[in-house]
């Protein structure tokens, strides 16, 4: 089950379950679109992969057992262990390589 993290791991801005600017990598690292575009340049600082928009989990169970009420978002805030300078340096080294070739 996809963990819907409540914040950007870089700037700590809130990313509610219906946020259209939430981005995730294949390991569910979660960042806001501004940080992905302006700081990370589509490079996950943890795995080196790219980002995709985080899906929005339905709030209404249109099928039994499938909605936020059955599978709520996480309340655990996650923060990157890297400094902003380290994030920028890492993304600068990797951003020229397409995600499919990393």
From TrEMBL:
<dbReference type="InterPro" id="IPR010696">
    <property type="entry name" value="DUF1272"/>
</dbReference>
<protein>
    <submittedName>
        <fullName>DUF1272 domain-containing protein</fullName>
    </submittedName>
</protein>
<dbReference type="Pfam" id="PF06906">
    <property type="entry name" value="DUF1272"/>
</dbReference>
